[in-house]
Write a structure and sequence with these properties.
Elements: E1 9-11, E2 17-19, E3 24-31, E4 35-41, E5 51-52, E6 55-57, H1 64-76, E7 83-92, E8 97-105, E9 118-124, H2 136-146, E10 153-158, H3 159-163, H4 174-191, E11 193-194, E12 206-208, E13 211-216, E14 229-233, H5 238-252, E15 257-261, H6 265-274, E16 277-279, H7 281-287
Parallel strand pairs: 3-8, 10-13, 10-15, 13-14, 15-16
Antiparallel strand pairs: 1-2, 3-4, 3-6, 4-5, 4-9, 7-8, 7-12, 11-12
């Protein structure tokens, strides 16, 4: 077999041998109707005849997300346009790392074994996954992964409250201040939100690829949406719109993690009553790139 970019075994500092000279990644794809997609590995591959995720070695010029999507298409005929990435979880051994890329289906997918590295694909309900003869490393990771399967992080931002938390002259140009916040949020949407602090779910191994909703009001109502940030202009008062957005997000996907960035005490209590978690403006601003 001819080895390609990134192919090859690594003798890891953990004492085990892993595949992928640049590390490896796999796609944990979930469908609310069918469960998670597992691949039965062919007898001749590393840890053959076990069940795991479609995935493989990273090429030198691609991200873990790109590698996971590519491998899922090559091995399971999963088209990239049919999945929505929601999070990543990394196991880092120092000399080698594996990234699980979590995703949900955008539309029906007819997954199948698309190359010789697998002998079958199967949608498995999450509560049955542990009953399968799993790849050693996937078996270890599964309990932590299962908690967040099919769940997205939704960040609802109270633009007026967050902008107003920093005395930088925003009151002279409220619309411009909202646009600057929107643009910084767009970078956050692309880079992801690390887990494990300030009430953000997951451990330090997690990075969420969020859906971000920016609620604007008053002079900022003309702010337009951009890639990664949906802007909602308040029809009435901003607080009511934020509660409505929060309620709708949880009605659409009750298991999603919904955070609301605001320091307003009354609003924080209202969104907590809906099932969301508040996030302080200072915690949000610490996540954003410099203005």
């Amino acid at each position: 077999m001819l080895l390609g970019d990134g192919d090859g075994f690594v003798r890891c500092a953990c004492g085990n041998v892993h595949w992928g000279t640049n590390g490896a990644a796999g796609l944990l794809l979930s469908d609310p109707e069918r469960g998670v997609l597992l691949q039965r590995r062919a007898w001749w591959v590393h840890h053959g005849r076990t069940w795991a995720l479609p995935g493989g070695a990273l090429r030198s010029a691609e991200t873990a997300e790109q590698a996971a999507i590519r491998e899922a298409e090559e091995e399971a005929a999963v088209p990239a346009y049919a999945v929505r990435l929601t999070a990543t979880s990394v196991v880092d051994h120092g000399t080698w790392r594996y990234t699980t890329v979590l995703a949900s289906v955008r539309r029906a997918i007819d997954a199948r074994a698309a190359n010789s590295e697998s002998t079958g694909m199967r949608w498995v309900p999450p509560h049955e996954v542990a009953d399968y003869p799993l790849h050693r490393d996937f078996a270890r990771a599964w309990p932590a992964l299962r908690e967040h399967v099919g769940r997205q992080l939704v960040l609802v931002v109270d633009a007026a409250n967050v902008v107003g938390s920093v005395p930088d002259g925003w009151w002279r140009d409220r619309a411009g201040a909202a646009e600057r916040l929107r643009d910084r949020l767009a970078v956050l949407a692309a880079d992801g939100i690390p887990g494990g602090e300030d009430g953000i779910p997951g451990s330090e191994r997690w990075c969420w690829l969020p859906r971000i909703v920016l609620v604007v009001e008053g002079a900022a109502r003309g702010t337009a949406s951009v890639e990664g940030v949906e802007v909602v202009a308040a029809e009435r008062d901003g607080d009511t719109t934020i509660v409505d957005v929060t309620r709708q997000a949880l009605a659409d996907a009750p298991d999603d993690h919904v955070l609301v960035a605001t320091a307003d005490r009354e609003l924080r209590a209202r969104v907590e009553a809906e099932g969301a978690r508040p996030l302080g403006p200072s915690a949000l601003l610490a996540l954003l790139p410099p203005p």
